[in-house]
TrEMBL record:
Origin species: Sphingobium wenxiniae (strain DSM 21828 / CGMCC 1.7748 / JZ-1)
Protein name: Fe-S-cluster containining protein
InterPro entries: UPF0153_domain
């Protein structure tokens, strides 16, 4: 029997918290996409490739049962969408400024910081670095890396 691909269920958090560069427009981060409805994407069949191809870490891990993050980590449930970039940086896009402080996601984020990953907390109000001791440091975006297209941040104090 063919198994169904993992699905987002009723989650649509990436359609709000992430910046989405579409062919004819750019949806800013932390702004609901005009096509996002309670029933999901209203242009699902014709959604841009960038939307069809995106998988947050929770969704990506559902493909391998031995690595699958628990259902409580689904972004709409835990309030944080995790994206891992190629450098191993954890990009935590928060539904609300304090979403990252809630369990179970807080313990996971802190564990990643303690294992040496850069953990960046993005919300509508601030960009923060989560340190291994649980404290945070404000960050300032200074541009986009022309090669990786990743945003580049520096500690606010050193800006
Ligand atoms: S945040 Fe993840 S689980 Fe939620 S809709 Fe986007 S890709 Fe799917
Ligand atoms: S076009 Fe659809 S899938 Fe893409 S961000 Fe908007 S609502 Fe989400």
């Amino acid at each position: 029997m063919m198994s169904l691909p993992p699905s987002c269920g009723s989650c649509t958090l990436c359609c709000t918290v992430m910046k989405v560069t579409m062919p004819s427009s750019v949806k800013p981060a932390h702004t609901a996409c005009e096509h996002c409805t309670l029933a999901g994407c209203s242009i699902y069949a014709d959604r841009p490739d960038v939307c069809a191809e995106f998988q947050c870490l929770w969704l990506a891990t559902q493909q391998a049962p031995q690595f699958a993050m628990p259902s409580s980590f689904r972004p709409d449930r835990c309030g944080v969408l995790i994206d891992l970039n190629a450098a191993g940086t954890v990009l935590a896009h928060c539904a609300f400024p304090s979403s990252w402080k809630r369990q179970p996601i807080h313990g996971w984020l802190l564990g990643m910081a303690q294992r040496g990953h850069n953990v960046l907390l993005h919300s509508a109000h601030a960009d923060l670095l989560l340190k291994a001791d649980g404290s945070t440091q404000p960050l300032r975006c200074i541009g986009v890396d022309p090669v990786t297209k990743n945003r580049v941040y520096v500690p606010e104090a050193a800006a």
